[in-house]
Every structure is written in C-alpha cells, then in structure tokens.
Amino acid sequence: MNARHGLPRLRPRGLGHEGRVRGAVLELVQGDITDQETDAIVNAANARLAGGGGVDGAIHRAGGPRIMEECRRLGGCPTGEARITTGGELKARHVIHAVGPVYRGGASGEEHLLASAYRNSLRLAAEHGLESVAFPSLSTGAYGYPVQDAAEVALQAIVEFLENERHGLELVRFVLFDRRTMEAFEEAFERVLPRH
Ligand code: ADP
C-alpha cells in the first residue's frame, strides 16, 4: 500500500487492497491523483468538459492550459461517456475525462451511468494501448453520489470490464483523496473482489 508510483507490491488476492483480475492488478491508495505516473489519469469531468472544482480543477491546474484547449475542441461529452486528451504538463501522458451522473436520489439511472463512465474510460484506455490507469471516485464530490454505493458500482464495473473485455491493462489504481472515501472503497473491495 505504500507504493503509490510504479508497479505495486503484490499480495495474495483477498489480503490488503490489491487484487488481481485476470492479468491486471486492481488497487486502492489514498492520495492526490495529479501526482500519478500511470499512463492515464481519469478526470471527474462535467458534460461540457468546461473545467470545475474538485479533482477537475486540480488536474487542470497541475496539467496547464493545453488540456483545456483540447477539451474545448472536443465540444463536450455526454454523461456516462468519456473522452481522452494529452496530459499536458502532468506526469501521466493522457487524461481521460469521464462524466459521471449528478445524483438525484438514485432512481434516475445513476447506477447505470456511473458504471458506464468507468467502463467507457477503460475502453478508451484499451483502444489507446494504455497499460496503467488511475481513477478518482467519480460523482461522489460535488455530484453527490453516496460514496458507499458508488464505490461498489465502480469496483464492480471495473472487475467486469477486466474479466470480459479485450484489453492490455496491467494496472487499474484508485487514488482516493480522503480517508472517508478510502474506507468506503476498502469496504466495497471486500464485498466485490471475493466474488471474482
Ligand atoms: P464529481 O463532480 O464527479 O462529484 P469531485 O471532483 O467533486 O467530482 O469529487 C470526486 C472525488 O474526487 C471526491 O472524492 C473528491 O474528494 C476527490 N478529489 C478531489 N481532488 C482530488 C485529487 N487531487 N485527487 C484525487 N481525488 C480528488
């Protein structure tokens, strides 16, 4: 769990918060996603790709203006989908801008849209031949998705993708900003990973 950069130290599945799903490592760390050296980091973007607060603001601040210039040319991204730009001045070569749903009580397709945002991010990564991707917790900040539920949807979507779709991914890492989010993902990890 100390290895925030490069390849993680491996533990047997079911111990700690690293697991293996087919060939890929899935791990949870607490930290700031803008420091990551993975091939791509994922941004919790809005549908206009217009920048905002939270992790989006942090990524644009750290990555410089080039990322926003590319976002403007993309002209937005529907909820549940994702778009890719370069990483500007970030250590990561790419940013995948994923648009999670605003939470409106849970009966407006939020679960499906959140899972789609994760799945479409991984599809883009695979199409671009990327081997490592770092995710924040999409939708659980300003968009208000309850983090316990969101963590389970996120991990389930990623495990399903890694098991069922063609990809060359070796590492999918969650970089969780605060202790509360980390704990929610740790608990969901115990529920989702043993099933696989
Ligand atoms: P959304 O609008 O999709 O809810 P937010 O950026 O408001 O996105 O929040 C998503 C999550 O990202 C929250 O858990 C927030 O604490 C976290 N976050 C904020 N800054 C960073 C960062 N630099 N690295 C990783 N996670 C971050």
Strand and helix map with partners:
Layout: E1 18-21, E2 24-30, E3 40-44, H1 54-63, H2 65-74, E4 82-86, E5 94-98, H3 110-127, E6 132-135, H4 147-164, E7 171-176, H5 179-192
Parallel strand pairs: 2-7, 3-5, 3-6, 6-7
Antiparallel strand pairs: 1-2, 4-5
Helix pairs in contact: 3-4, 4-5
Bound molecules: adenosine-5'-diphosphate.
Q: Would you give an account of this structure?
A:
The chain is α/β, with parallel strands linked by helices and 196 residues long. The protein is 36% helix and 18% strand. A hairpin with a 7-residue loop joins strand 4 and strand 5 (94-98). Helix 3 crosses helix 4 (147-164) and helix 4 (147-164) packs across helix 5. Adenosine-5'-diphosphate binds at residues 32-34, 44, 54-56, 58, 100, 136-143, 175, 177-178, 181.
Please give the number of β-strands.
7
CATH architecture: 3-Layer(aba) Sandwich
| Broad CATH class | Alpha Beta
Per CATH, what is the topology? Leucine Aminopeptidase, subunit E, domain 1
Protein name: O-acetyl-ADP-ribose deacetylase
InterPro entries: Macro_dom, Macro_dom-like
Give me some keywords for this one.
196 residues; alpha/beta; Leucine Aminopeptidase, subunit E, domain 1; 7-stranded mixed beta sheet; 5 helices; 36% helix; 18% strand; binds adenosine-5'-diphosphate
